[in-house]
């Protein structure tokens, strides 16, 4: 190591009045993660970790943060993954990597990007993965899990390889002003590039901009008190609850409010997913003030394959509300890029493609499902339809 590098490394960490600031050092063409991992044991409390502006860092290996308390991670420079797909796959399989960046827990943790347009990007070079059709040994992007009092703001993710943010088990989260740019430039499809997977309690997601190829938002089992609002979603699979009840799991999702969201060129706007044979309850879920344009199924409500006689259970749904939807249904010939099965995995038997609402409920599993002020046009001008068997819903109102 040359003396100048030594100097840089030794001055990268500074503690002033009990607060430690670490500027992540950078070596051209080398992996920059090692230097951060070496310093992390000294950065678990009262620290700022800064990827500085003006530098493009090489994020060639995964980062797992230990439990953190009062720590801010600021991505003010650019971060780039390796473009060596096989190399990343080797790391994923040999180190059993799920997320490339993993926060394992703690208190008062902020993950902050940059508001400068030229800086603060994390470029995962996902396009090459999508073009090659690689669906295995893919790293997801950022797990922000088991954190109490967390913030994710101003983050900018370019071409993630797969899922982007997951917040499982966190409590009191504010995620805002984040951008995910995950549309494909070619005919290949950006499979499984879910935007925000909200698991946990008391979370506010707002002012996020998401272009992707899977759920824009997915609210998973155990989630409570989730608000997702004032956002834009394009190209993906909608604002989803679930899937709940897989393999007989007992679902518990409560108090979800999704409002003021624009959905463009998407499979669904609002969507509820549950598995036959599941158990438990999803209650008090509202989607309101949703604008959509070019959406195949604007409102795919509680629905599921009919329970069979071996296990007639289903996830129960209660107090669902869909209000103020308006927009345009894509009823022109179109096959969404994720349609790789025949029939398409998203085909709804007997639907005509002109339905604004599809409810297909099993009797006795749903109560108090309301739709109000739903207005839609089809692209072709054909009349809009609704698919729902009223006998399956109690206390419903339109
Ligand atoms: C972090 O700072 C807080 C208050 O500034 C202080 O109470 C706490 O002891 C510090 N923690 C550590 C590990 O230094
Ligand atoms: C929380 O962390 C931030 C740094 O992200 C720090 O400025 C603030 O003082 C911390 N809050 C408390 C209560 O320690
Ligand atoms: C930072 O990365 C983004 C996304 O790749 C790119 O558009 C921008 O030009 C980069 N900034 C600099 C200064 O290279
Ligand atoms: C709705 O969200 C958009 C951002 O997508 C925002 O500009 C607008 O102010 C929000 N409207 C309300 C009523 O909050
Ligand atoms: C329903 O959820 C909303 C927000 O998502 C919350 O404000 C309200 O208190 C909840 N109502 C009940 C009865 O739990
Ligand atoms: C019924 O569903 C259960 C799981 O819910 C499954 O194990 C079983 O094989 C199914 N039976 C039939 C006849 O499809
Ligand atoms: C079906 O649901 C009931 C009531 O929630 C539960 O007691 C039972 O164990 C469930 N059966 C299966 C096979 O999951
Ligand atoms: C119905 O929703 C639209 C927006 O989708 C809104 O402009 C309109 O005011 C709403 N009407 C009522 C009666 O709430
Ligand atoms: C529907 O939209 C109208 C007009 O913007 C607004 O006054 C009303 O509060 C909205 N209703 C709901 C439930 O959001
Ligand atoms: C589709 O419609 C036909 C004719 O009405 C009916 O027999 C069949 O059960 C329906 N299929 C489904 C899955 O609803």
Could you characterize the architecture of this molecule?
- This protein is mainly beta and 398 residues long.
- 8% of the residues lie in helices and 48% in strands.
- It is built from four helices and 30 strands.
- It has helices spanning 3-11, 33-39, 85-94, 126-131; strands at 13-16, 19-23, 45-51, 56-58, 63-65, 68-75, 78-80, 99-103, 106-112, 121-123, 140-144, 147-153, 156-158, 165-166, 170-176, 179-181, 196-198, 200-206, 209-211, 217-219, 224-234, 239-244, 250-264, 268-274, 279-295, 297-303, 316-329, 355-360, 366-378, 385-387.
- The strands form two sheets. It has a 19-stranded mixed sheet that branches.
- Strand 1 (13-16) and strand 2 (19-23) form a beta hairpin.
- It is globular and about 65 Å long.
- It starts with a helix and ends in an 11-residue tail after the last strand.
- One 2-acetamido-2-deoxy-beta-D-glucopyranose (NAG) is lined by residues 248, 279, 311, 313.
- One 2-acetamido-2-deoxy-beta-D-glucopyranose (NAG) binds at residues 70, 72, 108, 110.
């Amino acid at each position: 190591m040359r003396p100048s590098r030594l100097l840089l490394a030794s001055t990268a960490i500074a503690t002033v009045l009990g607060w430690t600031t670490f500027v992540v050092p950078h070596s051209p063409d080398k992996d920059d993660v090692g230097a951060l991992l070496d310093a992390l044991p000294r950065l678990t409390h009262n620290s700022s970790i800064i990827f500085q502006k003006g530098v493009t860092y090489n994020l060639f290996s995964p980062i797992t943060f230990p439990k953190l308390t009062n720590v801010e991670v600021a991505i003010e420079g650019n971060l780039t993954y390796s473009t060596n797909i096989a190399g990343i796959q080797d790391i994923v399989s040999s180190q059993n990597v799920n997320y490339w960046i993993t926060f394992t827990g703690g208190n008062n943790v902020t993950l902050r990007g940059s508001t400068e347009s030229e800086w603060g990007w994390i470029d995962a070079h996902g396009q090459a993965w999508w073009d090659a059709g690689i669906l295995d040994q893919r790293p997801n992007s950022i797990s922000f899990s088991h954190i109490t009092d967390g913030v994710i703001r101003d983050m900018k993710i370019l071409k993630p390889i797969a899922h982007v943010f997951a917040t499982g088990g966190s409590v009191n989260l504010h995620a805002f002003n984040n951008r995910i740019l995950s549309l494909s430039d070619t005919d290949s499809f950006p499979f499984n590039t879910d935007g925000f997977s909200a698991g946990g309690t008391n979370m506010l997601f707002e002012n996020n901009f998401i272009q992707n190829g899977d759920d824009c938002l997915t609210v998973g089992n155990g989630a409570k008190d989730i608000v997702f609002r004032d956002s834009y979603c394009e190209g993906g699979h909608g604002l989803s609850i679930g899937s709940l009840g897989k393999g007989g799991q007992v679902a518990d999702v409560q108090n979800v409010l999704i409002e003021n969201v624009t959905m463009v060129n998407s499979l669904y706007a609002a969507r509820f997913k549950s598995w036959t044979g599941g158990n438990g309850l999803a209650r008090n879920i509202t989607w309101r003030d949703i604008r959509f344009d070019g959406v195949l199924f604007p409102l795919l409500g509680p629905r599921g394959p009919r329970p069979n006689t071996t296990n007639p259970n289903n996830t129960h749904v209660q107090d669902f509300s869909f209000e103020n939807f308006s927009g345009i249904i894509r009823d022109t010939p179109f096959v969404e890029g994720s349609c790789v099965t025949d029939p398409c995995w998203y085909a709804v038997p007997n639907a005509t493609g002109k339905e604004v609402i599809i409810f297909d409920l099993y009797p006795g599993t749903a109560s108090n499902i309301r739709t109000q002020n739903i207005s839609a046009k089809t692209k072709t001008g054909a009349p809009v339809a609704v698919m729902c068997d009223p006998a399956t819903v109690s206390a419903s109102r339109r």
